[in-house]
Amino acid sequence: HVGEHPDQVVFRAQLADLLARLDRLPEAQAQYEAAAACAQDGPPIVKKDLVRYHTRLMEIARARDDAYAEHLHRGIGLYLVAGRLGPSADSGEVERLLCKAAKALKEAQDLRPDDARAAWYLYRVWSKLDQPRPAEEALREARANAPFSRLTAAEARELALATAGQPAIISR
Predict the structure, then answer these.
(1) What's this model's pTM, rounded to 2 decimal places?
(2) Is residue 26 domain-resident?
């Protein structure tokens, strides 16, 4: 069914859950990644499961000894949880989660400095923390590495919007 209807996020996630239970972790990882990518562009009812997908991706990465993916998905998940708390939440709790997200994403970036995903989410975290200098640096790194990275369609689109109007990057 998933092959015929790739945009059916719920079925894709159920398949990923089944594959994970069967210890077919590479296949489960691919399905969770695809579910997360589809959910980013989906309605709010679908987006609510993004934290779960990134939690599962973090667990799979840990089981597969992939430190980069473990830190990346931990950071993205913490960023998403902080975003869900909303304006009525304790600002200290939101800041604490965002700082944990920044730490995890920085660890991911240190492991793969040429990957745009960690830099893109660092930009988002630093922006939420009202830290313009590190946010600008992360945005520059994300933009420079984007052509060589596996950003989702939503991430690539949001990065393009965030950098619209900036001068082109010229590499030496």
Answers:
(1) 0.89
(2) yes
